[in-house]
Write a structure and sequence with these properties.
The protein has a domain of 86 residues: Alpha-Beta Barrel (TIM Barrel), CATH 3.20.20. The protein contains 10 helices and 10 strands.
Length: 234
């Protein structure tokens, strides 16, 4: 394993034989899409600065690997990748790309969607990508920019909605994939999603027992932090 959202982590997932790679994208102050989950650098770099308040040149100097040490491995030189850098890596393989848009406000939807769609087209990778977001209105913007890009509707476990309401919200924004947290992965929801023509991807599961469960329920994909361990039990 390697520190999240770093090139070391992506290369490790590729080496492990993962079918797809999921990552998070935000915009820097100067409009560069970069790969990072949190809105600040506090957890992965020990800095209070917000990603949106820093330029790409400043972020390139930030160490986001030293905090992570597992099994004697250290990653002191890992930095935040740009989306451009990661898409260049994807040109050398055929993995599915799962790009999560991270937006703190609706004002970020359009510039982030435009930047992501532009780079996906420049690298000729849009046929291999699924764009996902918790704020489903952002997916509508992606579809408006490029209707050919597939989207996934993300749902957190705190969402206390009926199966039908979840499906309605996903289909209203043109999503082709339903991506609920594993606590929401009840058989009734999966069955209804499949009947509606949606694929189902569950996040985030690191317990190999989920593999058999997913097969029995008809779940299409499992998103995990440890692809090597999960693949060993597939």
């Amino acid at each position: 394993m390697a520190p999240e959202n770093t090139m070391a982590a992506f290369r490790a997932a590729i080496a492990a034989g993962a079918d797809a790679i999921e990552f998070d994208v935000r915009l820097t102050r100067d409009g560069i899409p970069v790969i990072i989950h949190d809105s600040t650098l506090r957890r992965t770099a020990g800095l209070a600065a917000r990603v949106a308040d820093l330029d790409w040149a400043e972020l390139q100097r930030v160490d986001v690997g030293s905090w992570f040490t597992r099994s004697g491995n250290s990653f002191p030189n890992e930095t935040i990748p740009s989306l451009e850098e990661l898409l260049t890596l994807f040109e050398s393989n055929d993995l599915l790309i799962v790009l999560e848009m991270k937006c703190e406000s609706r004002s970020e939807h359009l510039p982030l969607a435009e930047a992501c769609c532009r780079l996906l087209n420049e690298h000729s990778l849009k046929q291999r990508v699924i764009v996902e977001c918790f704020d489903l209105s952002a997916l509508t913007i992606v579809k408006d920019i490029d209707p050919e890009i597939k989207t996934a509707a993300l749902f957190e476990p705190a969402f206390s909605m009926s199966d039908q309401r979840i499906l309605d919200k996903a289909t209203e924004v043109g999503a082709s994939v339903l991506a609920p947290h594993h606590r929401l992965a009840r058989p009734s929801l999966v069955d209804k999603a499949k009947l509606a023509g949606l694929q189902v991807a569950i996040w985030t599961v690191d317990d190999p027992s989920w593999i058999a469960r997913a097969r029995s329920m008809g779940i299409d994909a499992l998103i995990t932090n440890d692809p090597a361990a999960m693949l060993a039990h597939r």
